[in-house]
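Appendix B, record 7
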Amino acid sequence: MFTQCAIAAGIALSIMLLVMPKFLPYLKKLKFGQTIYDLGPQAHKAKQGTPNMGGIVIAGATIISLLLVAVITGVRKGWNFGFSNALWPLLFVVLGSMAVGFADDFIKDVKKDHEGLKPKQKLIGQLFVGLAFSVYCYFKVGSDVILPFTNHTWNLGVFYIPIMTVLVMFMTNSANLQDGVDGILSSVTVVGMAAFGVIASFMAANGANDLAVNGYVIAIACFALVGACIGFLRFNRHPAKIFMGDTGSMFIGGVMVGVAMLLKLEFVLIPICFTCIMSSVSVMMQTTYFKITKKKYGQGKRIFKMTPIHHHFELCGMKENQIVLMYAGVTLILSLIAVLSLTAFY
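Structure tokens (predicted):
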């Protein structure tokens, strides 16, 4: 199984390294450049006009690699590629999430409307994707979720659908917020998805029938994304030559939450995707505290210098590369804990 995962990572990496050098000049020619907002860190002003929408290539490399390896392996092993196969719902949630991000990028970069999708439009799109995927998982995967460090599950019953719908929306937006420093989301994704891939491989080895097949498919998907993000880092590390945009960040968020829900590992998202989650949490804390203090004192106060929290670290004097290394290191440690937390269950 690890051979197929390595092949998937290698194919995705090769696609990135072959396609991106041709894609970059094309984006520059079309002037699909990133708009840097005035409220952001001043050091980011130099990034104005850097090509955006590199997430298209990340998604393309990941999906092509996944389909090639999964289908060839499946035909050889006689897998069932019916509706119960995890390949189809996973493709739905990642492509659906990416579509929302692509629409936002298209409006901002092609139509030159800096506001992008209206919040209501984005919410409706994410709600549809999250609800449809949650309903599928409720009926095909089950309403129980694995409790780390135990051999038990927690059945959420009918509450599963609304909770998981919110989770899909939260995780795709969290990945989007995380993508604010050169190479940061790509780096944590390489580490986190490698951990999910290892977990899926163990599940496949210890499962039977559809569970084993789905574990293999998900493991291949995880390592395909790992390969794509490693390749993307070649162009996205500081100083970035291209950004992934909402297209890429929401695609990655869709993979994260899709894999977790199909494996019943929603709680494992907390350690593996901790830095993404904290990006959203920091924004919510800042906004709430500002509103409360403004109402109480007439002038809003802030907890952090700027949110998402990686910008706070920037304004405290940390370099972008230092922040990326810190985030990747934290993700590595927490991912190892996440893998070990499931030994009792498997």
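Remarks on this record: The longest strand covers residues 144-146. Strands lie at 144-146, 153-155.
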